[in-house]
Amino acid sequence: MGWVGFVLVVTACSAWGWQRATELGRRPGDLRILRTALQALESEIAFGAVPLPEAFARIAGFYPDPAATLFRTAAARLAPPRSLGAAAAWDEAVAAAVRTGGLTPDDRAILRAVGPYLGATDRDDQVRHLRLAMARLEAAEAVARDLDQRWGRIYRYGGLLAGAFIGLLLL
Fold first, then answer.
1. What is the DSSP letter of 10?
2. What InterPro entries does the record point to (predicted)?
């Protein structure tokens, strides 16, 4: 009976470590997707002069989550019956994207900083703020990639070793 408990403790700790490592590994990819989606939005604003609901809906179809959730939610919030302002719609969309992805509060702050300028300022100012957000997302992506490389392996093997240690103590 003790060996069954040992195996359960090792399995649970290993699963926790692998899950934590997976979360760390997912964040750089999510940030890269968001950055490329913001580049697409920049193109839609700068060259296409497309209305925001249309641009959001179009971009949502091209990218996976969390960008798809971000732009789909923003497009839905701009459409009737809710018809929120662009900043409020963007803010709600960012909150929805953060819930679905492996994004941190810092990433949320970067994305939220874009909201007040979307549809409220001239084209050049919107493009300037989008480029600033893309640069900040790129820096966050580099930090996230570094964290993944350093801590991902520690979580994977540390979970297994911690589980074995705790299991041996309980035997």
1. H
2. Spore_III_AB
Q: Which string of b and e fits 39-48 if b means at least 16 CB within 10 Å? A: ebbbebbeee
CA distance 61 to 16: 33
158, 24 contact by CB (below 8 A): no
Write the pLDDT tens digit of every residue in 149-164: 888 888 888 888 888 8
Residue 15: both structure tokens together:
């699963």
126-151 per-position pLDDT tens digit: 889 999 999 999 999 999 899 888 88
Note the pTM of the prediction, 2 decimals: 0.79
Domain positions in the chain: 31-151
| C-alpha 101 chain-centroid distance | 4
How far apart, in whole angstroms, are the C-alpha atoms of residue 85 and residue 110? 19
Residue with structure tokens 């989606």? 37
